[in-house]
Amino acid sequence: METLDEMKIAANKSTPSVTAEQAETARLRAEIARLQGLVAAKRPLKFQVGQKGGVSVYNLGRFPVTLFYGQWKRLLKAAVELEIFIDEQYEQGKLATKDGDEQYA
Questions:
Q1: H or E stretch at 49
Q2: What is the four-CA torsion angle of 62, 98, 38, 80, rounded to 10 degrees?
Q3: Contact, 60 vs 42, CB < 8 A?
Q4: CA neighbours within 13 Å on the CB side: how many for 79?
Q5: Is the model's pTM score more than 0.70?
Q6: What kind and span of H or E run contains 81?
Q7: Looking at the structure, do residues 91 and 69 belong to the same domain, yes or no?
Q8: Whole-angstrom distance, CA of residue 28 vs CA of residue 15
Q9: 36 shares a domain with 16
Q10: Per residue in 19-36, pLDDT tens?
Q11: What is the residue range of 5's domain?
């Protein structure tokens, strides 16, 4: 029959240490969070008309962007000007970026 010390030694040889398991768990959780961020950044834009007639765009960020018809038309007419302005500000380092923004730069 094995002694208590012999059983402890056998158990230590057959299973990895708790700290190694904890480190691996932390690494895997970090990887999952990183991958979830990539998936969230690549979600397609979704458009929806609300009860009050506003058009909302989803998956741009945490909250939807909602404008009414006339506001969207004005914004779309200024799209080229807006893109030039954004590019200039980006080049000057004035814009905050989020993960995934680099694909548009």
A1: strand 46-49
A2: 90
A3: no
A4: 4
A5: no
A6: helix 79-91
A7: yes
A8: 19
A9: yes
A10: 888 888 888 888 888 877
A11: 1-42
